[in-house]
Design a protein that fits this description.
The complex is a heterodimer of chains A (294) and B (334). Chain A has helices at 43-51, 92-100, 109-116, 131-143, 161-176, 188-194, 212-219, 234-240, 256-265, 280-288, and strands at 5-14, 17-27, 32-36, 58-63, 66-67, 77-80, 149-153, 180-185, 197-202, 205-210, 223-228, 243-245, 248-253, 274-276. Chain A is α/β, with parallel strands linked by helices. The longest helix of chain A has 16 residues, at 161-176. Chain B has 12 helices and 5 strands. Chain B has 2 domains: 3-41 and 135-327, no CATH class; 50-129, D-Maltodextrin-Binding Protein, domain 2. Chain B is an alpha/beta fold and 334 residues long. Classes of the chains: A alpha/beta (294), B alpha/beta (334).
Amino acid sequence: MTPVIEVKGLTKKYGELNAVDGVDFTINQGQCFGLLGPNGAGKTTTIEIMEGIIKPSSGQVNYYGKTATTTDISQQIGIQFQHTALQDFLTVKETLTLFSSFYQQTISHERLIELCDLGDFLSRDNRLLSGGQKQRLLLALALINDPDIVFLDEPTTGLDPQARRNFWQLIGKIKANNKTVILTTHYMDEAEQLCDDVAIMDKGKVIEQGTPEQLLSRHFKDVFINLPKEDIDKQIVAENNWLIEGNKVVISTSTVEQTLAYLIKQNISLTGLHVKSPNLDDLFLKLTGHSLRE
Amino acid sequence: MNISRFLAVVKARNLEFVRDKSSLGWSILFPVILLVVLSFVFSGDGKAAYKVGVIDLTNVESNFLQTKYIDFVDYQDVTLAQTKLAHHSLDMVVDFTNQRYWINQDSPNGYLVEKIFLAEQSGFEALSTKGEKIRYVDWVLPGILGMNMMFSCLFGVGYVIVRYRKNAVLKRLKATPLTALEFVSAQLVSRTIIVMLTSSIIYIGCNVFFNFYMLGSYLDLFIVGLLGSLSLITLGLLMASRSKSEELTGGLLNLVSWPMMMLSGVWFSLEGAPKGLQFFADFLPLTHLVSGARKIITEGASLSDISYHLAIMAVMTTVFLSLGAYFFNWNTER
């Protein structure tokens, strides 16, 4: 099967700065592909080159096996940008009508309103929308032409936790319709929730790629067992070379059963025990030596 | 060019303008306030000196020309001088070569200046014209309307496009199948409708109170206005074609609007101005809009009489639009 999108040797230079520095990946039909990385990693530049908004310095983007420059893909894609204002003095309903007029094929407003939950503020001026309402409207605009490919650039940045969870559900519905979704984010939990395939970017380069599970199992054999510091004798901590982080003792192990049996044998209370699997945050820290949020 | 996409943008832009109450109100109130103020300020005849038109002034020698407090203005064209006399812009016209002079029977100034003239000269044939006095408010009307149109065209289009570019509205539109041509022409058409509509409302509304002088045809006036706004809007589009900075574009727009405000004959006639200045003013679209409209209103000129102004505005529109479309950029990269 031809991949939906192939990105080959993409670079983008701004003067001396290599914003994107030789990026390759492929995205298959129906996948949710996540571009992960801290701010300034080159995610937005990469995704905007794919959308045809920015011209690359070199490299190419293929859609269904054809170079993007030779085929007009604007009818087939939907885009939600990171920072977009909408025309002032237009209502949500009027904005939907305006954008509908741009496309040959559109989905009905009723369906869109229901899907993105716009019903409560249809006749409100764009300027008066809350953060979550605006994000939902922008997503609706991205979906208005019933696109096969949906680009979402940090769709949940700046939303409260409740609004983020609602947004994830929405994206789940889109995926269920066999759309291909390309998402950038710097939230690792978001990527773990939504993405089938993940490319981690740092300083313009893709430093790791795979499913979230693959990536974690490739880099982490151990899980972490946390126990309250006061429950364990200091001597035992020292003997086993365990780490102390704040008021916790962190035991890194690949054989959880043996470790637990050892703890029970030592008569250590397991009441405050907490087992934690490594997540993509830990992975990013391990790969780059700095944390994602920096 | 897809018509439904184009019309949707025109409609959206019109809605945006009509709902922006402050800018709508201002674009209508501003010229009305100016007209009212000017009509009060210039209601009395403050001029101390008389103005006499002399045919072929440079070759005339006469003691009359030494009279103090009379301005003597050279005219080569007798008909033109007579028109000025009919409008009370001149108090008297003298043709020394053919030993004749004209005064306006409706003008008290003409009566007085005739007495002075006859004290110095005799044997001239006395001729007279008639004509209602053109008030300053009649004369300045096309200037005020033109100036208001200029600001609305330049800033209404220029600022809006730069603001759209800055806050990525343009980027969002670029990501749709909408083309630059569709977008730009929609801005052009929408602003033309707005400007022509508001100007017509102002003209018709003020006409009730001022009962403006009008010798020419309203249709001709409308056509001049239309061509003038097209040339000004395309100039605004050109100024806003690339930049993302409101400050820079604001500066550019001021750079073109201020010379027009001062030098396009909005407030005073350019007739006596230095040749260099008149030459420069010829490059400003507003000059042609104002003087074309003024000739229709005060001289009853037809479209063919002002074809020079119409042609220049058409050329300007074409040049500005081509350059604007060529330079147009949806989003400036960093």
